[in-house]
Amino acid sequence: MTIKQFDKPTLGHIRKKLQVHLDQLQKELGIELKLGNITYRASLFTGKLTGTIEGHDQEAEDYKQYAKFYELKPEWLGQRIRWTDGKMFTIKGLNTKARKNKVIIEANGKSYRTTVRSIIRAMDLNQTNQ
User: Fold this and answer.
1) Dist CA 128 CA 71 (whole Å)
2) Who's near 129: CB < 8 A, 6+ residues apart?
3) What SS3 state is found at 23?
4) 105 by DSSP, 3-state: which?
5) For residue range 33-74, what is the model confidence (pLDDT) as tens digits?
6) What contacts 66, CB < 8 A, 6 or more positions away?
7) Apex CA 114: angle with CA 56 and CA 88, to 5°?
8) Which DSSP string corresponds to 32-100?
Protein backbone atom coordinates (compact mmCIF):
# COMPACT_ATOMS: atom_id res chain seq x y z
CA MET A 1 0.00 0.00 0.00
CA THR A 2 1.44 3.34 -1.06
CA ILE A 3 0.04 6.38 0.70
CA LYS A 4 -0.63 9.39 -1.53
CA GLN A 5 -1.95 11.72 1.18
CA PHE A 6 -2.90 11.66 4.84
CA ASP A 7 -6.54 11.66 5.84
CA LYS A 8 -8.56 10.30 8.76
CA PRO A 9 -8.99 6.72 7.46
CA THR A 10 -5.33 6.50 6.43
CA LEU A 11 -4.18 7.73 9.84
CA GLY A 12 -6.47 5.20 11.53
CA HIS A 13 -4.70 2.48 9.55
CA ILE A 14 -1.27 3.91 10.43
CA ARG A 15 -2.21 4.16 14.12
CA LYS A 16 -3.18 0.47 14.18
CA LYS A 17 0.12 -0.53 12.56
CA LEU A 18 2.12 1.68 14.92
CA GLN A 19 0.30 0.25 17.94
CA VAL A 20 1.32 -3.30 16.98
CA HIS A 21 4.97 -2.24 16.94
CA LEU A 22 4.62 -0.17 20.12
CA ASP A 23 3.11 -3.18 21.91
CA GLN A 24 6.14 -5.29 20.91
CA LEU A 25 8.55 -2.56 21.98
CA GLN A 26 6.77 -2.19 25.34
CA LYS A 27 7.30 -5.88 26.09
CA GLU A 28 10.90 -5.78 24.95
CA LEU A 29 11.86 -2.69 26.98
CA GLY A 30 9.54 -3.08 29.96
CA ILE A 31 8.06 0.38 29.55
CA GLU A 32 4.62 1.74 28.74
CA LEU A 33 4.21 3.53 25.39
CA LYS A 34 1.11 5.50 24.54
CA LEU A 35 0.37 7.11 21.19
CA GLY A 36 -1.63 10.29 21.76
CA ASN A 37 -3.20 12.84 19.45
CA ILE A 38 -2.24 12.90 15.80
CA THR A 39 -2.61 16.05 13.74
CA TYR A 40 -2.21 16.07 9.99
CA ARG A 41 -2.18 17.87 6.69
CA ALA A 42 -2.29 16.25 3.28
CA SER A 43 1.45 15.52 3.19
CA LEU A 44 2.47 15.59 6.87
CA PHE A 45 1.35 14.19 10.21
CA THR A 46 2.69 14.54 13.73
CA GLY A 47 1.79 12.65 16.84
CA LYS A 48 2.58 12.55 20.51
CA LEU A 49 4.29 9.48 21.92
CA THR A 50 4.58 9.16 25.69
CA GLY A 51 6.83 6.63 27.37
CA THR A 52 6.72 5.85 31.08
CA ILE A 53 8.41 3.39 33.38
CA GLU A 54 5.99 0.53 33.99
CA GLY A 55 4.06 0.96 37.21
CA HIS A 56 5.13 4.59 37.67
CA ASP A 57 2.24 7.01 38.01
CA GLN A 58 3.45 10.58 37.50
CA GLU A 59 0.06 12.09 38.31
CA ALA A 60 -0.06 10.28 41.67
CA GLU A 61 3.52 11.38 42.39
CA ASP A 62 2.60 14.97 41.52
CA TYR A 63 -0.40 14.77 43.85
CA LYS A 64 1.81 13.65 46.74
CA GLN A 65 4.36 16.35 46.05
CA TYR A 66 2.10 19.33 45.28
CA ALA A 67 -1.20 18.66 47.10
CA LYS A 68 -0.40 21.09 49.92
CA PHE A 69 0.05 23.96 47.44
CA TYR A 70 -3.57 23.50 46.31
CA GLU A 71 -4.98 23.01 49.84
CA LEU A 72 -5.50 19.32 49.15
CA LYS A 73 -4.55 16.73 51.74
CA PRO A 74 -1.95 14.15 50.67
CA GLU A 75 -3.90 11.38 52.44
CA TRP A 76 -6.85 11.97 50.09
CA LEU A 77 -4.95 10.27 47.26
CA GLY A 78 -6.61 6.91 46.62
CA GLN A 79 -9.67 7.71 48.74
CA ARG A 80 -13.15 7.10 47.42
CA ILE A 81 -15.54 10.03 47.52
CA ARG A 82 -19.23 10.36 46.86
CA TRP A 83 -20.01 13.04 44.27
CA THR A 84 -23.09 15.27 44.43
CA ASP A 85 -24.99 12.93 42.10
CA GLY A 86 -24.24 9.97 44.37
CA LYS A 87 -21.59 8.45 42.10
CA MET A 88 -18.41 7.13 43.74
CA PHE A 89 -15.01 8.29 42.53
CA THR A 90 -11.41 7.61 43.54
CA ILE A 91 -8.85 10.42 43.69
CA LYS A 92 -6.04 9.28 41.37
CA GLY A 93 -3.66 12.20 40.91
CA LEU A 94 -2.91 15.78 40.00
CA ASN A 95 -2.19 17.39 36.64
CA THR A 96 -0.17 20.45 37.61
CA LYS A 97 -0.07 21.70 34.02
CA ALA A 98 -3.85 21.94 33.73
CA ARG A 99 -5.21 25.44 34.05
CA LYS A 100 -8.52 24.59 35.71
CA ASN A 101 -9.34 20.89 36.12
CA LYS A 102 -6.21 19.77 37.94
CA VAL A 103 -7.46 16.78 39.94
CA ILE A 104 -7.78 13.38 38.26
CA ILE A 105 -10.55 11.14 39.57
CA GLU A 106 -11.69 7.73 38.39
CA ALA A 107 -14.95 5.79 38.33
CA ASN A 108 -15.48 2.37 36.77
CA GLY A 109 -12.05 2.44 35.12
CA LYS A 110 -12.66 5.77 33.40
CA SER A 111 -10.67 8.90 34.29
CA TYR A 112 -12.14 12.35 34.70
CA ARG A 113 -10.68 15.72 35.58
CA THR A 114 -12.19 18.19 38.01
CA THR A 115 -11.34 21.33 39.93
CA VAL A 116 -9.49 21.48 43.22
CA ARG A 117 -12.45 23.35 44.73
CA SER A 118 -14.83 20.51 43.76
CA ILE A 119 -12.62 17.95 45.49
CA ILE A 120 -12.34 20.02 48.66
CA ARG A 121 -16.12 20.50 48.70
CA ALA A 122 -16.76 16.79 48.08
CA MET A 123 -14.32 15.78 50.83
CA ASP A 124 -15.99 18.19 53.25
CA LEU A 125 -19.41 16.71 52.40
CA ASN A 126 -18.11 13.16 52.73
CA GLN A 127 -16.64 13.90 56.16
CA THR A 128 -19.85 15.62 57.30
CA ASN A 129 -21.97 12.61 56.24
CA GLN A 130 -19.81 10.08 58.08
Assistant:
1) 18
2) 82
3) helix
4) strand
5) 999 999 999 999 999 999 988 888 899 999 999 999 999 999
6) 94, 96
7) 80
8) EEEEEEEEEETTEEEEEEEEEETT--HHHHHHHHHGGGGT--GGGTT-EEE-TTS-EEEEEEE-TT-SS
